[in-house]
From TrEMBL:
Protein name: Lipoprotein
Superkingdom of origin organism: Bacteria
Length: 80
């Protein structure tokens, strides 16, 4: 009986330590999913995007930052 329990326990422990890249899953098409924690919540949410979507978001973010810097718009603490 003990000879049966020990191997099954060992298999269960080793399979629990196996990584399956749950945080980031990629494929060759540029489709990627990742677990992201939102502000105010400790529960991660799954966010998936394609390479083209990520590049568009990156370009939009850079343009928005550039526009805010040109206009002199500050957010947060402005007590210099």
């Amino acid at each position: 009986m003990r000879n049966c329990i020990l191997p099954s326990l060992l298999i269960a422990l080793l399979s629990g330590c196996q990584t399956n890249d749950a945080l980031v899953a990629k494929n060759d098409d540029g489709y990627r999913c990742e677990q992201v924690k939102s502000i105010g919540s400790s529960i991660p949410q799954k966010r998936c995007s394609t390479r083209a979507e990520r590049e568009l978001i990156k370009a939009d973010s850079k343009e928005s930052l550039r526009n805010h810097q040109k206009a002199g718009v500050f957010t947060g603490n402005t007590d210099f």
